[in-house]
């Protein structure tokens, strides 16, 4: 049955500059057997939400934002790929909000048993086998609710990184929670008012491309490495999440403000992630420079949306071994390069290049990047996404106790360290692909990262470990 669409989403939406990179990475992952580029987000609740209310809210949400059902079309060579939205939203096309229960928990009507939240995440985030290799037939966003021991519940959100980034998912959940209360007026902006890049003259575009390529080739002037060793190969997505308590998290924020800046703490977190990776590199006898990206959100601060697409500007940083001696030295090295890039507006130059490269076939896009990087993509992935959905306090009658992301990574590079914040606490997510890092190395990496963040070794709560027993 068709449902009237209430949203203002455009029927055809060109991808943004950063979306092109995500599309190229997704294509590399699919070709090498890693599956599509999906991310996960977990919301812990004090009870099972009111399932009828949640399902109705989800139907209303998709009606208001039919881009959830959109399909990415590449079109003719040289054209910018675009999202195409169906003219009508059919109820049967809306992904079902499924209910599960852990063993020993009396399931509500219609609930199916699953071994654990982690087991469901393994299944949802390694979707290749479930779709028989046809990831494009899978939903862009999927919601599952797991009844947990003790009366609580966890909502598992699986989402395509081609359509959403982490902040976008937080906005989606905040809007869904609002819809669950019956407030469906004044919907959040789904996309930018105008997705078209700033108009530049031929000379301006040429100058920006030259500036970026000069900088980029300087970064790649000598070899660097990743734990994936530059090889695109099959492997399941795995995660370990640890939580820092309020006291330890407070010390992290103080150190970030002192060593970097309260207004721009990202260099501190990136420096700590680089040192954590360096410990594992040195354990393998690898003492090479690191080249990493520092994503910066470009959504208007304090605004409601836009919800969909990847709103990121990328900064590239190169760290030599001498830059990694201490956290303070590493932070200054990142800050210096970030300042240099801002002075020369290399973020704008990179955006100009990315806008042009959107037209390339994904395989050619990634081939160009990896050719420049001698087979690699980066030494690792990293982001600090800040406060997790501050306005998300209740979902369909259940109190939200905690929320965090499970960002997937590709090989190469094979690993990533990510930080998000829930209230006074911080969550650290180590993400890895297949067998690129063993258990001892993972322990050393997390230990080093936490110690550098806090300034000393502290006890952490291991929140969840999600590890696939198979490798596709």
Q: What's the Cα radius of gyration? A: 22 Å
| Protein structure class | alpha+beta
Broad shape: globular
Poorly predicted parts:
1-6, 129-135
Distance between the termini: 37 Å
Tally of contiguous helical segments: 11
Number of separate domains: 2
Number of strands: 19
Q: Which second-level CATH architecture of the largest domain applies?
A: 2-Layer Sandwich
The top-level CATH class of the largest domain is: Alpha Beta
Q: State the order of secondary-structure elements, H for helix, E for strand.
A: EEHEHEEEEEHEEHHEHHEEHHHEEEEEHE
Helix content: 25-40%
Give the name of the CATH superfamily of the largest domain. Answer: Nonribosomal peptide synthetase, condensation domain
SSE map:
Layout: E1 2-3, E2 12-14, H1 17-31, E3 38-45, H2 51-64, E4 71-73, E5 82-84, E6 89-90, E7 98-101, E8 112-113, H3 117-125, E9 141-147, E10 153-160, H4 166-180, H5 202-219, E11 237-244, H6 246-259, H7 266-283, E12 290-297, E13 312-319, H8 327-343, H9 346-357, H10 362-372, E14 381-387, E15 394-395, E16 398-406, E17 415-422, E18 425-433, H11 439-454, E19 461-466
Parallel strand pairs: 7-8, 7-9, 14-17
Antiparallel strand pairs: 1-6, 2-5, 3-10, 3-16, 4-5, 9-10, 11-18, 11-19, 12-13, 15-16, 17-18
Helix pairs in contact: 1-9, 1-10, 2-4, 5-9, 7-8, 7-11
Protein name: Condensation domain-containing protein
InterPro entries: CAT-like_dom_sf (IPR023213)
